[in-house]
Amino acid sequence: MAYLDRFGRDALGLGLLVLAALSLIGMTSLSQGSLITPWGLLLKRGLGLGGYGLVLFLAYLGGWVLRGGTATAPVKLLKRILALEGALFAWMTWLSIMEGLDLERAEAGLDGGIIGWGLGTLTARVLPVPLNALLWFLLWIGLALIGLGLWKRATTAFKAWVEREWQRPTQSTALSEKPAFPPTERVSPSPSSGAEGIPVAIVSATRDPRLPPLSLLTQEETNGIDEERILAVARKIEQTLAEFGIPAQVVGYRRGPTVTQFAVEPGYIERPGPDGQPMRQKVRVSQISALSRDLALALAAERLRIEAPVPGRSYVGIEVPNTTTTPVRLRPILESEAFQRLRSPLALALGRDVSGQPVVADLERMPHLLIAGTTGSGKSVCLASLITCLVMNNTPEQLRLAIMDPKMVELARFDGLPHILGRVETEIERMLAVLRWALNEMDQRYRLFEAARARDLNAYNAKQTRKNQPGLPRIVIIIDELADLMMSAPDQTEHSLVRLAQLARATGIHLVIATQRPSTDVLTGLIKANFPARIAFAVASSVDSRVILDANGAESLLGRGDMLFLNPEVGSPIRAQGVILKDSEINRVVAYWHRLADEPEEAPWEALLQEEENEDDDLLEQAIALVRRTQRASASLLQRRLRVGYPRAARLLDELEAMGIVGPAQGGGREREVLIPPEDEDQDADTG
Ligand SMILES: Nc1ncnc2c1ncn2[C@@H]1O[C@H](COP(=O)(O)OP(=O)(O)OP(=O)(O)O)[C@@H](O)[C@H]1O
Fold first, then answer.
1. CA 270, CA 282: separation in Å to the nearest integer?
2. Alpha-carbon gap, residue 101 to 117, rounded angstroms
3. Given the DSSP bridges, would you call strands 358-362 and 369-372 parallel, antiparallel or unpaired?
């Protein structure tokens, strides 16, 4: 099927290119033919110079289809084609109007041809010539931008320009008065990006040819630095602090994708000393951080975070949201020096910090990652970018993923990646089986290492390579919502996660777990103790922030990918804007691997589930005997006595109900009614 798809696409793309070439030959009369000549004449007469536009349009469409452009959703594709066609007509009409709507010229195949002339004449009846020309010119530009997919970028740039021009007159006078920033603290624009201090890209020359090319991913979209606004905010900060009796100076700034961090150096307050002489006393940093709400009010900022002091620096950092945010893209981070320097297959591109520098980390060293934040704060986007980052750098022989997504929609689009063991699991019971399988796999790997006298996965794989034997892949287990698992089988989940977290590192098994419920019943002390690397997205309160990071701060984040990353090797959390991928980028990467994949394999935990199903029959017998003996029926009783997890106990109860042994659920956690008599009564009845 995929082959047919590919073949059809290639045929269509080539067909469009050939049509473009034939149209060009016909219009320029380079060659004669019974079809080409009348076709060229028709184009010339009908479209005038627009005929050349049509040639370009066909060639562009052909190239686009060949490059895989049909992966775009059909409605979107149709919209873009219609817009490009509209742009072509608008251009032809504009040409005709500019040449005075001359029918003779149109018939001779000049200007916009008959069609351009016709459309122009139609609107000329109601509009004066300049307005008529302007209307078609604007239509041409607008439709071309939509057709080329540049509309959003153009409107954003236009808005930023209007904003800049609007603010200019009010600020220019004050600007010359005080250069507030020493040049050293400024983010110098890099040659590759043209803005925002993004480091020069370094592409590794040693990229494995089996890996997807980086060109599948989008380049960064950047906003220019609006220095005037930054200066105005800096002045406002100084002014507000002064109004509260705190002398302080803004000595620099660092601009990131969503926030700008202002470096504020506390000044001195003069106080009368014990001897009556004035004494200079430095402002305490806590005095500045206490004013965060007043500063937010003065700057009309939604939320404001104060880092007091910035670790390793002699100033306080006040982070003010930018008016426009820049989406952080994966590709420039993969190409950055910081990422390349990690030289790890499990290097993760997390985002950009408050100065626009890449934030990267090595999952192998973390060795597990905990992600938490309220709903809509950016967890799933973060997981999707982590998965894409991993599969951009690893073949399925090097890395396997076990993905669990009880929310069912967020990560299901990765189904079909050959890296995924089985498929993306969405049912609680199957997820518990994945964890049990991971524990088995870990034990088995330890036995293999022992036999091969290898200390860890790297040593084992090196030995296998020397013997020309295949090595073992690393395994990353990803859970998109831990709360669901913890609610239905808390003991089993906690036990498995903790054991894996403690022991799995050497075997190349790593965990990435996310939750939107940062409460202590989900992130228990034991789990937290074993997951020192954490990412906190925006949360509702400082209590939640402390549950995740053991520190305040996440409550002041702005949401939508704004995060605090706690790297155990660094100590204090780093603020960053997370990477976001377009759907089209993910689709291209999945399609790349899908094309190379063999038939999907059965999940390795399938056998485990089958075994357990057989065990269930024994359990059912035991459950009947238990209910009959105790005359009580509840999930917790079955869990305790039969030593099973909640999902199994609940399933057993359902089966007992279907067999008419217990009544329906009572609600409110009450026990069910038992419908069979105790054993002796049964016997009495038999004998009597
Ligand atoms: N890094 C980012 N950059 C820009 N926008 C982002 C980023 N991350 C998330 N967003 C925006 O926030 C929205 C919500 O993100 P996401 O679905 O990841 O939240 P979530 O925390 O997983 O929520 P839920 O728990 O309800 O699934 C996204 O649709 C996107 O528009």
1. 9
2. 6
3. unpaired
The mean per-residue pLDDT over the stretch 44-63 comes to: 80
Check whether 159 is labelled as a binding-site residue: no
Q: In this structure, is the dihedral angle defined by the CA atoms of residues 46, 49, 50 and 53, taken in order, positive or negative?
A: positive
Which residues neighbour 349 within 8 Å (Cβ) at sequence distance 6 or greater? 330, 333, 334, 339, 358, 360, 385, 389, 579
Q: State yes or no: pLDDT of 521 exceeds 90.
A: no
The whole-angstrom separation of Cα 546 and Cα 318 is 21
Give the pLDDT confidence of 523-554 residue by residue, as tens digits: 888 888 999 999 999 999 889 999 999 888 88
Predicted-complex ipTM score = 0.97
Nearest CA to ligand 1 atom 16: 378
pLDDT tens-digit profile of 455-466? 889 999 999 999
Please give the backbone phi and psi of residue 478, each rounded to the nearest 5 degrees, phi first. -120, 125
> What's the pLDDT score for residue 562?
92
193 is in an annotated binding site: no
Whose CA is closest to atom 26 on ligand 1? Answer: 375
Tokens linked to 336? 């950055």
Residues 57, 53: Cα–Cα separation, whole Å: 6
Distance (Å) from CA 354 to ligand 1 centroid: 19
Task: Say yes or no: CB of residue 561 within 6 Å of ligand 1.
Answer: yes
Tell me the angle at which helices 646-658 and 635-642 cross, rounded to the nearest 10 degrees.
120
346 contacts 365 by C-beta, under 8 angstroms: no
Q: Give the range among 312-316, 357-361, 441-445 with minimum mean pLDDT.
A: 312-316
325 closest CA partner among 186, 221, 192, 198: 221
The DSSP-derived string for 274-342 is TTSSEEEEEPPHHHHHTTHHHHHHHTT-S--EEESSPTTSSSEEEEEE-SS--PBPHHHHHTSHHHHHH
Q: What is the DSSP string of 221-236?
A: ------HHHHHHHHHH
Q: Would the CA dihedral through 653, 655, 661, 664 be positive or negative?
A: positive
Give all domains of the chain, ordered by start, each with its CATH number.
2-149 (no CATH), 355-596 (3.40.50.300), 606-687 (1.10.10.10)
pLDDT for residue 72 = 52
The pLDDT value recorded for residue 178 is: 33
Of 377, 383, 409, which is best to mutate to test ligand 1, by the most ligand atoms within 8 angstroms of its C-beta? 377
Question: What is the helix (H) or strand (E) element at residue 545, kind and residue range?
Answer: helix 542-549
Q: Please indicate whether residue 332, judged by its CB atom, sits closer than 6 Å to ligand 1.
A: no
Q: Which atom of ligand 1 is nearest to the CA of 374?
A: 21
